Amino acid sequence: MLRAAVLLLSPLLALSLAACTPEPEPEPEPVPQVETAPIPAAPGAADQGKAAEVEEAADVAEAEPLAPAKTAEAPAPVTAEVEGDLTCSGVLAHQSVSGNVEVPTGANCQLFDSEVDGSILLAPGSAATLSATQVGGSVQGEQVYDLVLEEGRVKGNVELSAGGTVQLNNVTVDGSVEVSDYQGAVRLIDNEIAGDVECQDTPDIGAEGNQITGRIRCPGV
């Protein structure tokens, strides 16, 4: 009889326990993710950043001085060696002539920074300019149209006749200067002449600042 009572009570106990057990709480629904858009930069912010970079680069450039640029040096002029005589009818420079320099008729010889062991021989109707040139012999010519000697040296004489114009400027002449029958201007300026200075039948003569060791037979000098 006791067993029957237990069997009757078991369903009741199961119901009561089921009633006392709490129901499980429902799981919360997932919250949807909201995508956030990037916040745009303020107007001009990029330009300000670039300006800051440029300013920083300028400060660095000022802090580091630039090295001075190297300038190329000009090569020294090459002297041309000429054995024997040389015919000059144009512009020549840096010549070393072992013989004479001949200027033909109608030619205009311009010789710069050169050395001539012999003489300068000027044909009738020629013209010549000798600048910073040393002549081992003499300068000779007849009916020379125009002759200019400047800043050079003549170890012999300067002998000219029946020509046009002559200029000797700052020239050292170890010998004499002889000019005759010149119809044009003859100018002797700041020269050193060890020998004589002679002028014949040459009306237009001008001289200034010369040092003449020999005799002067030239009106106006």
Automatic annotation (TrEMBL):
Residues 42-51, 63-77 have a biased composition (Low complexity). Gene3D superfamilies: 2.160.20.20. Residues 1-19 form the signal peptide. Keywords: Signal. It comes from the Bacteria. It comes from Deinococcus radiophilus. Residues 21-77 are annotated as: Disordered. This is Polymer-forming cytoskeletal protein.
